[in-house]
## 1
Amino acid sequence: QKEVEQNSGPLSVPEGAIASLNCTYSDRGSQSFFWYRQYSGKSPELIMFIYSNGDKEDGRFTAQLNKASQYVSLLIRDSQPSDSATYLCAVLISSGSARQLTFGSGTQLTVLP
Amino acid sequence: DGGITQSPKYLFRKEGQNVTLSCEQNLNHDAMYWYRQDPGQGLRLIYYSQIVNDFQKGDIAEGYSVSREKKESFPLTVTSAQKNPTAFYLCASSTGGAWRGASYEQYFGPGTRLTVT
């Protein structure tokens, strides 16, 4: 079982709609969760992080965390064509004193004008 | 401006040659990381360093080597032992550390696209 799983998509939504991106993880001890956006041919850009159960909002983006269900999601409201990218979920996993991010394989989002 | 730089942006090498990818940061971050990304795939951790003069293997360290002699610099050498070196290589940094309250948000450089023929 992969440690961090995402639906690879592609996910298509019309402009102005809400895009919902989902991620599940296997390590119950994980404490920190990150969403990155990656445009084609570019490096990942951090857009959100969340540490506590519940919702965290930043502009059009909302991250939702449910540790009991081992589930984290990213909602993008009023989706724009410029939001078309691959979204990577990352989970901080601790092993002894070492802490490293484990990434999912990403969900490709297309926002249709 | 603070940030992470990687050079070169594109690199071409012949099979059997070692090649070194540069990564420099001026964010005063303690931790630095190297990832590899293949087409349509997520990021896989090659090596990471949480402090100067110390580094740890990630999930796919075979065929790679690193050094961390300065806080700002974390070069990656792709050796001839790496069987499939053609990939997009990404360097990242974070404030890191093992102390309580440490920040683990990682910020990425622009990447180096390596092609080996």
## 2
Amino acid sequence: DAGVTQSPTHLIKTRGQHVTLRCSPISGHKSVSWYQQVLGQGPQFIFQYYEKEERGRGNFPDRFSARQFPNYSSELNVNALLLGDSALYLCASSLIGGETNTEAFFGQGTRLTVV
Amino acid sequence: AQSVTQLGSHVSVSEGALVLLRCNYSSSVPPYLFWYVQYPNQGLQLLLKYTTGATLVKGINGFEAEFKKSETSFHLTKPSAHMSDAAEYFCAVTRGDSSYKLIFGSGTRLLVRP
């Protein structure tokens, strides 16, 4: 079975541009979460979506937005990119969004570099 | 609010030696605790988790961790380090409610000397 897939794997953008990152969860998983991992730090929670609805939001500015599609894939959008947005963006899928003892499976991440 | 502190950003051990990675948490509610491993240029892989029940948890690759409520700790151990264990390790905590928000520590890089 395919794991969590993210695209693209690497991306270089210029300050002020917009970026869209994509995630396909494991088949049958209905919950997708997004995390930002800045170099040398642990991942920080951005969003959780379950059944196409936002279930949680971390402490990120409104430039960050996301959505989940009927097939449970998800997009993370970041507007007006700043140098500080350079990071590894991780997507995690889990079987059930409301059960915290369900394992979250992480994708390989998208490495975003803002220049 | 919840938080995680990992003591030691880098830990170096010899191959065959005991591995001990420290994690302390803060939580106002009973926590669920996790250890993840991250190899270079890869995502996170779950090593083990504690939710309820037995406080000594065994995971993959010979790792285990013990939940000690009185010490608010969840240290990760492995009796004998292998070269393949060299990676970044993250401790994480979450609440037992309807959200699945993992709060991660800053990570510990494990170096294994031949």
